[in-house]
Amino acid sequence: MHQPTVVITGANRGIGLEFVRQWLERSAVVHATYRTTMGGLSDLEHPLLTCHRVDVRSDEDLVAMFDRIEGPVDVLINNAGVSDGRWESLEAIDIDVALDVLAVNALAPVRVVQQASAKLREGSKIAMVSSLMGSIGDCESGRSYAYRASKTALNMLTVAMKPELAERGVATVLLHPGWVQTDMGGPQAPVNTVDSVAGMLARIDELTVATSGSYRSFDGTILPW
Q1: In what order do the strands lie in the sheet with 75-78?
Q2: Which CATH number is 212's domain given?
Q3: Quick check: pTM over 0.85?
């Protein structure tokens, strides 16, 4: 049985950390990134786990990581992300902060895919952790300006890269993890990280080039663009 090699960004806490745990339970070779502190990764000593200090906005950091990875990458999970300023009004938006949110949430995943390109092969899969908040059709309450825009941009960038990747046999999927009990989601959220990640893993398992570019919730629901 093939032992997959998996790369997970933003893996020191929350959803990313749970992705690491569940892939290790599957006996995958896991490469996990953190930006400044290892967080929960420091408690996961495992022979199949390698941790990398990576700023996903840095080509230099990404090149160094992928150079350390032997062989192809079977699954790439772009999970690293930031929230915005939770601005209460249009006038309160800090444009510099908004640009940083777009850089991390929308453009950094593209940068990761660029630097991973040489490691991707036919059958490789790329999962982008998006959000229902990136859905234009679902945006009834408004606000969360930069976060919403960043996830909408990520959705479009991923769909735009779909044909080019599909020619190489590489499939992509955009995943909404649900409203999850994390630092970002808060304790009142209805979904725990274990169930969210288990659902997203099921979506990755079933992903093929034929279904590439789909936008789905962790429970399999197809989401409106």
Answers
A1: 49-53, 29-34, 5-8, 75-78, 125-129, 171-176, 214-217
A2: 3.40.50.720
A3: yes
